[in-house]
Design a protein that fits this description.
Layout lengths: L1 E8 L5 H19 L2 E9 L5 E8 L2 H9 L2 H9 L5 E9 L5 E7 L3 E10 L14 E8 L5 H17 L4 E9 L5 E8 L2 H9 L2 H9 L5 H9 L13 E12 L3
Antiparallel strand pairs: 1-3, 1-6, 2-3, 2-10, 4-5, 6-8, 7-9, 7-10, 8-9
Helix pairs in contact: 1-3, 4-6
C-alpha cells in the first residue's frame, strides 16, 4: 500500500463547507479513478484550523497516475476557497500603478509514504462512526535500523494495539526517499479509547521496546519529556490526534 497525506489550513467557519465538498465531490472522484483504497478528511483536536486529507492507494503507481491525470490539482483548486489565508502576501500592481498586498490561501503540503506493514490490507471498510478518531505518531529511526523497527512494529506493536479496546486498525509508513521518518497511524472508535490507551501506560511500554532503533534525539526526549496526546514533544517525536470528519473505503 501507499499513503498520501495532504496537510491543510482550514479557514475559520469553513469546515462544514469543506466537508460537504469532500463527501460530494472529492470522495466520488477518487472512487472513480481506480487504485484508491480509502480516503478520509480529519481535523486536529488541538489546532482546529489544521486538517489532513489522507488517502491509501494500492500502489505508488496508482497514486502517481492520479497526480498525472490532473485530477489532484483540480480538486485542490475546488477546495482552495475553504483554505485559511497564508502568512505570506501576494504582491500585485493595481490599475493606478500602486502596489497592493493581498493575502492568499495557504497552500496544502503533500507528504507521501510507503506502507511498510499494517494490521490488514486496508482500513476497515465499515462506515465511519460518529466518534471515530485517528492518532498519528511521527518519529525518526536511526540509519540502518528501519528494517528492525519494521519487524518490531509488526511483531510487538500491532498485536498490542489490536488487543487494546477501541483500536480498529494500525499501520506503519515510511516516506519515499532517504528520510528516516516513520509514521504510525491508528484508527480508534473514539478519542476516549485512544486517551485511555495513553493513560494505561501501554504506549510508553511499546516505545521502550523500540527505543534502541530511534534517533539519538528521540531517545533523549523520551527520557526528559512525556509523550502525551495531543502534544508535540520534540522535533523527533510527535503525537497528534484527529477527529475523523469524513471517510470512505473503496474496498469491495
Amino acid at each position: 500500500m501507499y499513503m498520501r497525506m495532504l496537510q491543510l489550513k482550514i479557514r475559520q467557519g469553513e469546515l462544514p463547507g469543506l466537508t460537504q465538498l469532500y463527501e460530494e465531490k472529492i470522495i466520488p472522484a477518487l472512487q472513480k479513478i481506480g487504485g484508491c483504497l480509502y480516503a478520509c478528511l480529519m481535523q486536529s483536536v488541538h489546532q482546529s484550523e489544521e486538517g489532513i486529507s489522507m488517502t491509501l492507494w494500492r500502489s505508488e503507481e496508482d497514486a502517481s497516475r492520479y497526480e498525472r491525470s490532473g485530477l489532484f490539482m483540480k480538486l485542490v483548486a475546488d477546495a482552495r476557497p475553504f483554505f485559511a489565508e497564508s502568512s505570506e502576501w501576494n504582491l500585485q500592481l493595481s490599475k493606478d500603478f500602486t502596489l497592493e498586498y493581498t493575502p492568499g490561501p495557504a497552500e496544502p503540503t503533500l507528504k507521501s509514504f510507503s506502507v511498510s506493514t499494517s494490521s490488514s490490507e486496508a482500513i476497515p471498510s465499515k462506515e465511519r462512526t460518529p466518534n471515530a478518531f485517528l492518532r498519528i505518531v511521527s518519529l525518526y529511526i536511526k540509519p540502518g535500523k528501519r528494517e528492525e523497527y519494521k519487524q518490531l512494529y509488526e511483531r510487538d506493536i500491532i498485536p498490542a494495539l489490536l488487543a487494546t479496546h477501541g483500536c480498529q486498525f494500525s499501520c506503519l509508513s515510511t516516506p519515499t526517499g532517504d528520510s528516516n521518518e516513520a509514521i504510525s497511524v491508528t484508527l480508534w472508535n473514539s478519542r476516549g479509547d485512544a486517551e485511555e490507551y495513553e493513560r494505561s501506560g501501554t504506549f510508553d511500554q511499546l516505545l521502550q521496546t523500540i527505543k534502541h532503533t530511534l534517533s539519538d534525539l528521540s531517545q533523549l526526549r523520551m527520557q526528559s519529556v512525556g509523550t502525551r496526546l495531543p502534544s508535540v514533544t520534540s522535533e523527533d517525536i510527535e503525537v497528534d490526534g484527529f477527529h475523523l470528519i469524513a471517510s470512505k473505503s473503496f474496498m469491495s
